[in-house]
Amino acid sequence: MRTEQLEYIAAVTRLGSLRRAAEELRLSQPALSETVRNLERELGVDLLERKRTGATMSAEGRELLPHIVGVLEAVDRLRAAAGEQHRVSRMVRVGTVNAATVPLLIPVVREFRAAHPVTQVEVVAAQQTQIHQALSEGGFDLGLVNHLEGDDVPAGVESTQLLHGRPVVCVRPDSPLASRAAVTVDDLLEQPLIAMRSGYVMHRYVHRLLGGRSPSFSYSTDGAEMGKLMVAEGLGATLLPDFSVVGDPLERLGALTYRPLAGDTTRVLLMLQRRRAESVPQAARNLHTVFVRRARDLAGTLTVDAPAG
After folding, report:
1. Dihedral angle at the C-alpha atoms of 109, 110, 112, 113, nearest 10 degrees?
2. Nearest to residue 242, comparing CAs of 192, 280, 202?
């Protein structure tokens, strides 16, 4: 068994495809596939499930993944102790549902990059169910997801609450809703509404809030960042957690603002999740620490009161 075989398995798991792993590793796909099969024959288990849509860890592979990661970390520690200056850098993959991408994620990545200049951070936008699946299969190291208070956490996932906030109505400063101290459901129904697609927590929240009633006109989009851009372009209003709006560049520039919902006490939680495992890559642990520290700083700036002006 060679350490590069384990690195190849880790790359296929992270990228979800033999083709993409071969491109990153600068190998031919047949050569990579044969190397992986040799390791599977040596171990006596099928580590990967090969499908037309890509390769994912098998159930047996998921059980062995912590041991594979542990071996690679041990090799890294050995190389560092030996004074090797050119060891292969690791990549940390973060899945995010977009909420708080700008106000939280960007400062976190900037701080982590300054302290870990040779470690790459890959940020992938995905829905919550996709993030949970990738965490369980080892495709993501960390996941940023939203929960409504009371939601269950999937088994096999370790969750840390980063932020808690309230849904707010995100509008342009020249919107009629911006003149109100708080927005009612009836107010919303009179305006074009930009809603998140099915699969997002805020889609579920809006469906519950409106109680079967329909706004004058509605759009559907994929993620908070596109929703905020559509608001800034004057297409309507959207509902987002306050921590996704406060401090956003568009909010700081005055392209959008926000108002609380009258009488609403719903809490939205931003959770940082990772797979429960005996061995977690050191880089992922370090990034987790930065997330927690930055979230603590950001929490002190959040408010659901209408901004001044």
Report:
1. 110
2. 202
Contact (Cβ atoms closer than 8 angstroms) between residue 160 and residue 121: no
Residue 297 pLDDT: 84
Q: Is 289 helix (H, G, I), strand (E, B) or coil?
A: helix
Q: Decide: pTM greater than 0.85.
A: no
DSSP state of 18: H
Q: Give the DSSP letter string of 203-224.
A: HHHHHHHHTT---SEEEEESSH
Query: Helix axis angle, 29-43 relative to 3-15, nearest 10°?
Result: 110
pLDDT at residue 136 in the model: 82
Q: Determine the pLDDT at residue 160.
A: 92
Residue 85: what pLDDT? Answer: 41
d(CA 142, CA 160): 11
- Residue 179 DSSP SS3: helix
Contacts of 73 (CB under 8 A, 6+ apart): 279, 281, 282
Residues whose CB falls within 8 Å of the CB of residue 267, separated by 6 or more in sequence, listed in order: 148, 149, 164, 165, 166
Cα four-point dihedral sign 301, 273, 157, 149: positive
Instruction: Confirm if 272 and 159 have CB atoms less than 8 A apart.
Output: yes
Mean pLDDT of the chain: 84
- Which three-class secondary structure state does DSSP give residue 95? strand
DSSP designation for 307 = P
DSSP state of 87: P
Calpha distance 282→170 (Å, rounded): 38
Neighbouring residues of 231: CB distance < 8 A, sequence distance ≥ 6 = 170, 171, 172, 194, 237, 238, 256
- Using 50 as the pLDDT threshold, list the residues of the chain that sit under it: 84-88, 304
